[in-house]
Amino acid sequence: xxxxxxxxxxxxxxxxNVKCMDCHEDFAMHxxxxxxxxxxxxxxxxxxxxxxxxxxxPDCYKKDQSFGQECETYSRVVGYLRPISNWNNAKQEEYKCxxxxxxxxx
Length: 106
Fold this sequence. Notes:
Layout: H1 2-8, E1 13-19, E2 26-35, E3 38-43, E4 45-49, E5 52-56, H2 58-63, E6 74-77, E7 80-83, H3 89-97
Antiparallel strand pairs: 1-2, 2-3, 4-5, 6-7
């Protein structure tokens, strides 16, 4: 996920070429940055099994959405993206209370 965030950079949108796990075709997975530490998949789907990521193209995902596991949430900590599931319980509760905001540029 860090690689995806790095590819997008500060841009609002980005894409990454990957191979579908079902049809084995290459496709461009599109992403949208929804916050400073949040990325939303716009085309296709990402799953994780046994520590490895796998991808489904939009067509295969429409046919079968039952794959993978619960999506991991990452947050930026000191310049690096880290999975929230690795945080202690207090920090996870603190994360749930966070509210996004926009800084107005004059």
